[in-house]
Design brief:
The complex is a heterodimer of chains A (448) and B (432).
Chain A (H helix, E strand, L loop, with lengths): L2 E6 L3 H12 L4 E4 L6 H6 L1 H20 L17 H25 L2 E4 L3 E5 L2 E4 L2 E10 L3 E3 L9 E2 L1 H4 L8 E5 L3 H12 L3 E5 L11 H13 L3 E3 L7 E4 L2 E4 L2 E4 L2 E4 L3 E3 L3 E2 L5 E2 L2 E2 L12 E3 L10 H15 L13 E3 L4 E6 L2 H6 L4 E7 L4 H6 L5 E7 L5 E8 L2 H13 L4 H6 L9 H11 L6
Parallel strand pairs in A: 1-2, 1-6, 2-3, 4-17, 6-20, 8-15, 9-10, 9-15, 10-11
Antiparallel strand pairs in A: 4-5, 5-6, 7-16, 12-13, 13-14, 18-19, 21-22, 22-25, 23-24, 24-25
Helix pairs in contact in A: 1-8, 3-4, 3-6
Chain B lengths: L2 E5 L9 E7 L6 E2 L4 E6 L4 E5 L4 E6 L6 E3 L3 E7 L19 H4 L9 E2 L5 E2 L24 H10 L17 H14 L2 H4 L18 H16 L2 E9 L1 H16 L7 H14 L5 E4 L4 E4 L5 E7 L2 E3 L2 E2 L7 H16 L13 E5 L18 E5 L3 E7 L2 E15 L5 H16 L3 H4 L1
Parallel strand pairs in B: 14-17, 17-18
Antiparallel strand pairs in B: 1-8, 2-4, 2-7, 3-6, 4-5, 6-8, 9-10, 11-20, 12-13, 14-15, 14-16, 18-20, 19-20
Helix pairs in contact in B: 2-3, 7-8, 7-9
């Protein structure tokens, strides 16, 4: 065998598992036909965060500068240069790509920049090379599922982050966190945005509390949110979408809705599960030594879960067999303020018939949040009443996506609400809200 | 000084795990290589496990009653100067193994084997700085807060529980599983539920013993793999009865108990020599027959713990007296629960005797991959015709099960006939 493992696709599932496999001394080939880092790094997580940051900055200057004591800003002269903001995003992407390439090299991963084809369970062709391997990991991600078969009017996320200009009227067809984030970001930079949701609700994995919060945020920015626009009920034409006798005009139709697996070329048949590759609990496909991690197996659309899946596969191959627990992964939404959650939602807790308690602490009483002018938000802890186990946490705060890591540790360590209450948090910090919420659950918050 | 982790070794074919029956050493005790460390209940027997090294015991992994898998750590020995061994690997230096990250355990000091090649501490967390010989107080076990609260609430000693979390941390799941196991053992789950409105428990639930599990496993394997067929017949053994009763008293003076079994064993071994297909094994996948040139006959022994089948070796070469001694020795070993895996290995044929309990004919299950098993029923007085006269005869009923894949019915009958002719004319046993 030429390799211990051949990994096809270098997104968060592929490159992370390639590095780990290299660290464990396996002989690894990583085959990538496009850019190292995949969708997340090149056209997803990273550029979107950079653009959101620009948009937030712009909005803050426009809205809050005077309040913070900064004078001399002429509102009429301030404008948002989309091209420059995008350049900044691209330079960050470049830097990170270089970083990953360096890490891959350092860990003896052979990167083969071409398209792979799986010939059989042990043989893969890459360009004009024929490679044999013990294991194959398919980490080829997903692509959007077009609204119209011809895809003639719609823009993919990939195309979106390659645009240098942004037109005025934008319709986003989608329902989950990235759709909400982009909608808000574009609204911040004064675009007219419609969020056309193919489902009855946005962010299906989020707690109802966060869903409602997100809808309020969008409403505040005058984003037109239309629910229930399933594919069969909308008619897409050039520059115009019809839904329930309503016309929505657009300059750009961004399709962030359903996705489907991107499959590598294959001479063998792998079982499918709808639009995705079927895998068992060990992430094995219908062929035992071929694994699938990340979007391609349809279990999740999140980069960190993809990475965790990739690492799980490498561990599994090296003999460490553990369960993959999807309930302990954080769910982040890069809105403004940010939102994050982990563990069970209140609806899931109710469904399971667990006696629980909700304890909240609003940031409106948090010193640092007030000082920073970002006092919109809340820390919300759901704990079970018998032992006080922390079952779920939701956060709305400027840095919620980082703060959630504290909650992740609580869940990972099976902490109780008493542990949360008795953990000393530095003052002044936003995270003090955790301790207050903990105290609230046990007895009574200090600052409430 | 170097420490040595002694792992539960593979002491028998296919053995996967054992239960700690009794520790023979204590923490802090000095031992010599060869000293017995622990008695393990394995698939069928109690096996004494000797130490491969001399030194001082610094850690026992597991309590009496704990299940230990082959390859898992049993004891940690601080070696004496001169006893060279690979030292405990530093987890930080381990490159090949993921275990460092989250596998392994530290609860009751358990160490887990990562690849089988190396034993390493998964985490230093929770491990004592220095092993203290006199230390009897337990250190605080690693456990999650919820697990602690739950253990306290349910009255469970958390120290008894082996953690499966990172670093051997006891988690909620471990407590729940432990409680479930406990309640199953005591038969509470079902037994406490009144069935159909009555207050009386309608079932009794009991944990399967290792030996019962093994029997079940072996029986299914036999019935699954072999094509069972049976032949029943009767043989008149007046002469054998006479010889046996004569020698019974002579042997008794030497302390040897003479039953019919040694004669039947001898007759069977001699018959096997003449009918080699019955003393064989089929390798269907390899397309081969393996005929054995040794005649080791297992005798099924009923014990309160379950059926076990110790083997008498080279029966064809032993005299009736020697066989009687072997049978007596093995029976004593069974009674004293000292049978080892070695005593049960390499049988080529089996005999099961139920006559002393009752029963005439049976359809015994073949001790797979052996080809046959002979069943011995109760000897009764019956009218038989001898020289045209109806006389009182001593009749021994015999049953034989054989694997029809290997041998056909005619040959099985011929084999049984040979045994019967030996038993009918016991002198012939000496004449071969």
């Amino acid at each position: 065998m030429d390799y211990d493992i051949i990994i096809i696709g270098s997104g968060p599932a592929g490159y992370v598992s390639a590095i780990r496999a290299g660290q464990l001394g396996m002989k690894v080939a990583l085959i990538e036909k496009n850019r190292v880092g995949g969708l997340c790094l090149n056209w997803g997580c990273i550029p979107s965060k950079a653009m959101i940051e620009s948009a937030k900055f712009y909005r803050r200057v426009v809205k809050d500068a005077a309040k913070f004591g900064i004078e001399g800003i002429d509102r009429k002269k301030i404008s948002f240069n989309y091209t420059k903001a995008m350049n900044r995003a691209n330079s960050i992407v470049k830097r990170l790509t270089k970083g990953i390439e360096f890490l891959l090299k350092k860990n003896n991963v052979e990167v083969i920049p071409t398209e792979a084809k799986i010939l059989d369970e042990h043989n893969v062709s890459a360009g004009n090379r024929l490679l044999s391997t013990r294991y194959i990991l398919i980490a080829t991600g997903s692509t959007f599922k077009p609204i119209t078969p011809e895809r003639e009017y719609e823009t993919s996320i990939q195309q979106f982050y390659e645009m240098e200009e942004m037109p005025e009227r934008i319709v986003i067809y989608g329902y989950d966190a990235p759709s909400v984030e982009v909608a808000q970001m574009l609204a911040f930079i004064d675009r007219k945005v419609t969020l056309l949701v193919p489902n009855d609700t946005i962010m299906p994995l989020a707690d109802d509390f966060l869903k409602d919060y997100a809808l309020r945020l969008l409403k505040k920015e005058k984003v037109n949110v239309i629910l229930g626009a399933t594919r069969d009920k909308i008619k897409v034409e050039k520059g115009k979408i019809t839904f329930a006798d309503e016309f929505i005009e657009y300059d750009l139709l961004l399709n962030l809705s359903n996705r489907q697996a991107t499959l590598p070329q294959m001479d063998i048949d792998l079982r499918m599960d709808g639009d995705f590759l079927w895998t068992n609990d060990n992430l094995q496909t219908s062929v035992d030594n071929i694994f699938a991690a990340g979007d391609v197996n349809g279990k999740s659309r999140f980069a960190h879960i993809s990475s965790a899946e990739g690492l799980f596969v490498i561990k599994w191959i090296s003999g460490v067999k553990k369960e993959l627990d999807f309930t302990k992964f954080p769910l982040n939404m890069y809105t403004h303020p940010e939102m994050a959650q982990i563990g069970l939602t209140e609806q899931q807790i109710k469904e399971q018939g667990i006696d629980y308690k909700v304890s909240e602490f609003s940031l409106s009483a948090n010193g640092k949040a007030l000082a920073e002018g970002s006092n919109e938000g809340v820390v919300r802890i759901l704990s079970e009443t018998k032992y006080g186990e922390v079952l779920g946490v939701q956060i709305v705060a400027d840095d919620a996506t980082d703060m959630i890591s504290e909650a992740a540790a609580y869940l990972q360590l099976e902490s109780t609400i008493y542990d949360v209450a008795s953990t000393v948090h530095a003052h002044p910090t936003i995270s003090e809200a955790f301790m207050e919420a903990g105290l609230e659950a046990v007895d009574k918050a200090i600052h409430k | 000084m170097a420490k040595y982790i002694f792992k539960f070794p593979d002491i028998g074919e296919g053995l996967e795990e054992g239960i700690i029956l009794e520790w023979k050493v204590k923490k802090g005790q000095r031992i010599e290589a060869g000293d017995i460390l622990v008695v393990m209940e394995t698939d069928k027997v109690a096996a004494e496990i000797p130490s491969p090294k001399s030194g001082t015991i610094t850690q026992l992994f597991g309590k009496e009653g704990d299940v230990i898998k082959v390859g898992e750590a049993l004891v940690e020995i601080e070696l004496e100067a001169g006893e060279e061994t690979a030292p405990l690997e530093d987890p930080a230096k381990a490159t090949k193994v993921e275990a460092v990250e989250e596998e392994g355990a530290g609860v009751v000091g358990t160490l887990e084997v990562a690849t089988g090649a190396a034993v390493m501490r998964a985490s230093d967390e929770g491990l004592e700085d220095k092993p203290q010989a006199q230390e009897t107080k337990k250190r605080k076990v690693l456990a999650t807060p919820v697990a602690r609260a739950m253990a306290k609430d349910l009255g469970v000693d958390i120290n008894q529980i082996k953690g499966t979390g990172p670093g051997g941390r006891v988690t909620k799941k471990d407590i729940l599983q432990y409680v479930e196991r406990q309640s199953k053992t005591s038969g509470q789950t079902l037994a406490t539920q009144p069935a159909y409105g009555t207050q009386e428990p309608r079932v009794e639930v009991e944990q399967l013993s290792q030996i019962r599990k093994t029997i079940a496993h072996n029986m299914i394997r036999s019935k699954h793999n072999a094509a069972h067929m049976a032949v029943f017949d009767e043989v008149e053994i007046s002469r054998l009865v006479e010889i046996r009763s004569r020698y019974k008293e002579i042997y008794a003076r030497e302390g040897i108990k003479l039953t019919y079994l040694p004669f039947i064993l001898k007759a069977t071994a001699l018959a096997l020599k003449k009918h080699k297909a019955l003393n064989a094994e089929m390798d269907l996948e390899g397309g081969k027959m393996i005929y054995k040139k040794y005649y080791n006959i297992g005798i099924a022994v009923d014990t309160p713990r379950g059926l076990i089948v110790p083997v008498i070796r080279d029966v064809d070469r032993l005299s009736i007296k020697q066989i009687a001694i072997e049978v007596q020795n093995i029976t004593r070993k069974v009674e004293e629960n000292k049978i080892t895996l070695d005593d049960m290995r390499d049988g080529t044929f089996s005999i099961t005797s139920y006559g002393s309990i009752g029963g005439k004919f049976a359809f015994p299950v073949i001790n797979y991959p052996q080809v046959g098993i002979l069943g011995i029923g109760r000897i009764t007085e019956q009218p038989v015709v001898r020289d045209g006269q109806v006389v009182v005869g001593k009749v021994l009923p015999l049953s034989i099960s054989a694997d029809h894949r290997v041998v056909d019915g005619a040959e099985v009958s011929r084999f049984l006939n040979t045994i019967m002719s030996y038993l009918a004319d016991p002198i012939s046993l000496m004449m071969e």
